[in-house]
Amino acid sequence: MAFRNRPGGHAAPGPSPLVHVSAGLLLLRLMLGIIMVTHGTQKLFGWWNGPGIDGTAKGMEHFGYPAPKVMAVVAGLSETLGGLGLAVGLLTPLAAAAVLGTMINALDVTWDGGFLLPSGVEFTLLVAVSAAALALTGPGRYAVDAYLPVLRAHRLAYGVAAIALALVVGAVFILIRK
């Protein structure tokens, strides 16, 4: 049992507030990770009624991306590996950047559909903001990163750098569209 100090110097039983935050971050990471792995494997392998590489490449071609098959693989790998990284809390800022960069492009190609589903951007925006939030907060204590010396103590600078990376790479992919 963890103890916290009260203002008078007396210890009060109860879990540390960081336990609650870490549990919430774990839940967010797991769900976002599972969602992204599912979407990525739909693109890569056609699982769960997904389009597979060829179907995703047709979509990339429709949206004006050069080398559509390569772009389909990049998007699928970014979602799958980023999702796996988020789910287990491994290299969390980079995993979040992979997801965020992909969502920036998804937002760009779907923005004209309005805000609400079925053709709107609300879900994509939620995924993007969730990934950015995880980049900034770090994975919490229930993550592989907690056991890596360099990432054990998450620093805000890691999250800011990851978001900057996602914004730059996302913008580059937007700019190369026809």
Automatic annotation (TrEMBL):
Q: What is its main location?
A: membrane
- Membrane-topology annotation of the record: Multi-pass membrane protein
InterPro entries tied to this protein = DoxX, DoxX-like_oxidoreductase
Q: Which Pfam families match?
A: DoxX (PF07681)
Q: Does the keyword Repressor apply?
A: no
Q: Which UniProt keywords apply?
A: Cell membrane, Membrane, Transmembrane, Transmembrane helix
- The residues that cross the membrane are 21-41, 81-103, 115-136, 156-176
Q: Which domain of life is it from?
A: Bacteria
Cellular compartments per GO CC: plasma membrane
- Give the protein's recorded name: DoxX family protein
Lineage, highest ranks first: Bacteria, Bacillati, Actinomycetota, Actinomycetes, Kitasatosporales
